[in-house]
Design brief:
The protein has eight helices and nine strands. The protein is an alpha/beta fold. The protein has a domain of 172 residues: P-loop containing nucleotide triphosphate hydrolases (Rossmann fold). The chain has a six-stranded mixed beta sheet, sandwiched between helices. Strand 6, helix 5 and strand 7 form a beta-alpha-beta unit. Helix 2 packs parallel to helix 4 and helix 4 packs parallel to helix 5. The N terminus is likely disordered.
């Protein structure tokens, strides 16, 4: 039996310096592709601390905001900065997509490759691989082919690969989509442990229950715009926007046309 995700993390994940890429600041940032406004005049600050959770209907712009915050998408206009600079290389940021691709290697081989790409000294890679697989509860499956893992196990492996970069900020795009309750709990437990270790989590989810369980800051996005943002407890006690009230009540926020992504 492997160690459960709720157990103690490796020491090197417990003590961390203040994240150098924070705060992440969007200043009137727009991302346009042709006539489509994927992000429209977004002003938002993401600070260190508990997870920032992006919510909103499918196609609202959550994924685009994550990609822009990671540095994968440049703003068409406006500015995005990391720790006060808009030229910060993404060496201390990592992202896990909703459907992560698995390399044709074992679970351990996937993490070893990620460590090599991250520049981890070769002498440290085996030990670090064991630590990361233990962190996500996969040490018992180290030799199994990554593509033979279940969906939840693959998502945990993707988290281990992302953490191989020792990121200050970890972006997660719908990390529990389509997972059963047990697999969802395993992912959420890892998110809590990583947060406790000082890594800033910025994640998108369509699950309001998950947002309530994890979020320190809520950001509601609709039609590429940030409709509302603030402390999660304040938001769920009483959203300040009409869209927020409707969304929390379970009503549909309809996209216009194709809508952002």
């Amino acid at each position: 039996m492997g160690r459960a995700p709720g157990q103690r993390a490796p020491d090197r994940l417990i003590v961390r310096a203040v994240a150098s890429d924070l705060p992440i600041e969007f200043s009137c940032a727009c991302v346009h592709v042709g006539a489509a406004r994927l992000l429209d005049d977004v002003s938002l600050t993401i600070n260190a601390g508990p997870p920032t959770v992006l919510i909103g209907p499918n196609g609202a712009g959550k994924t685009t905001l994550l990609r822009a915050a990671m540095g994968l998408v440049a703003p068409t206009s406006g500015r995005i900065s990391w720790g006060g600079s808009d030229r910060t290389p993404p060496t201390k940021r990592a992202i896990v997509f909703q459907r992560p691709a698995m390399l044709r290697r074992s679970a351990a081989g996937n993490v070893l490759y990620a460590l090599a790409v991250a520049g981890t000294p070769q002498a440290e890679r085996r030990q670090r691989t064991s630590e990361l697989l233990r962190l996500v509860g996969l040490e018992g499956l180290a030799r199994r082919a990554a593509r033979r893992l279940s969906g939840g196990e693959q998502q945990r492996l993707a988290l281990a690969r992302a953490l191989a970069r020792s990121p200050d900020v970890l972006f997660l795009d719908e990390p529990t989509a389509s997972l059963d309750p047990a697999a969802t709990k395993a992912i959420e437990d890892i998110i809590r442990r990583v947060t406790a270790a000082g890594v800033k989590i910025v994640m998108a989810t369509h699950d309001l229950g998950e947002a309530r369980r994890l979020a320190g800051q809520i950001v509601l996005i609709h039609l590429g715009r940030v409709v509302e943002s603030g402390p999660a407890d304040t938001f769920f006690a009483g959203p300040g926007s009409d869209e927020g009230k409707r969304f929390v009540a379970g009503e549909l926020l309809v996209q216009a046309g194709g809508g952002p992504r």
